[in-house]
Amino acid sequence: MSETYTYRNNSPDTPAAGLPLAGTRLVVQPNISIRGWLCNAGSRALDGFVALQDATVITRLKSAGVSLIGSSQMNELGFGLAGETAIQALCRGEADIALVTDTMGEARCAAAGAGLFGFKPSFGIVSRFGLIGLVPSMECSGLVARNPGGIIDTVATMAGKDTNDPSMPDEAPPDFAVARQAIKGSYSAGVVKECLDLLNETEVRAFRAGLARLEAAGAEIREVNLPDYNLFRAVHQVVASVEASSSAGKYDSVRYGHRSPSGKNWNEMYLSSRGESFNSLIKTFLFQGAYFQFEDYTAFENACRIRNRLVQTCSDILGKVDFLVFPTRRIDHDPARAATIDDIYDAFLLTLPANVAGYPSVHVPSCAIDSKVDIGLQIMGKRRDDARLLSVAVGLASNKVTGGGAE
After folding, report:
1. SS3 sequence, 169-189?
2. What is the Cα–Cα distance from 111 to 145, expressed in whole angstroms?
3. Which residue among 104, 209, 264, 297 is least crowded, i.e. fewest CB within 10 A of its CB?
């Protein structure tokens, strides 16, 4: 088995010709349920677990002709990018699309590190049924590909109401047919001043070069203010840690996963197994969540109120401009090397708003500082404006000048 994969499908199905995604090779993280495949979500807590049925997105993609080549390595429970290998499969030409859970911006940051396109859809348009998640209100199935066309075809297949996922609103999915052509006419893109203030001179220079390309594609660049921008980090950390603590409570080692051989009774076995099942990073995050959940619940309630205010502020700004645009990542904060909670939040600081608000966001490779670093353009739209957002990416892709393999 290659180190790229947790599970390698050596005999992928050959779909019938004529299906919309026939011939498309998909690599997934092992937190997406595929019947009969190992599905450990990168955690000892799920050691040896084999999925009993397909996730809804997998059922839909199979029906469209996708060929599943295997599941990648991943960071524990999808929290960050350390150890993530799905992008390696894309860069080696072994896969066309990678399905990467986006909780903090993982799909977009992974794409930025490889000169690829990354997309996080609006929360609620893609089913989470069959996803072994950590932060239910902020995570979704993100996509990474060499070009936006592959993302459009895949998300159009995945999107739509699923009665197995009660978190999905009763809405028709966006019409992704309009995304296949570059956006027509002029549009406005707001640059958040408080975000620019976080960048160093080199990053600002690279970002402005990307904005120049956006202008050339028809955008009117405007500076906007979001005074509470710094609160996205605090809100995400408090709310996500509480949801994670609650979500991880089911890993008790009784029905599946790692079970400690120590302990004289069930309670000791449970405590020992929990202690051995998670790495130190996840343990720290779960402890934080447990603290807010049981010792300072008022802080959690306040974070939820602030979150609502931030969503309303973003909605107000997006009533004045068509899109918001940010860099995707910073030079000195590599998400794949983040080893502590502070490191992770430093690395994903620029991608958190879309997850907190539930808005769609696409990363376009365009701001390479050298052959190794691309801080990218991250464009965020209104909720359910996914198709128009991707049409912007199509327009930018047509005159792309940098990146490792993106077209």
Report:
1. CCCCCCCHHHHHCCCCCCEEE
2. 8
3. 264
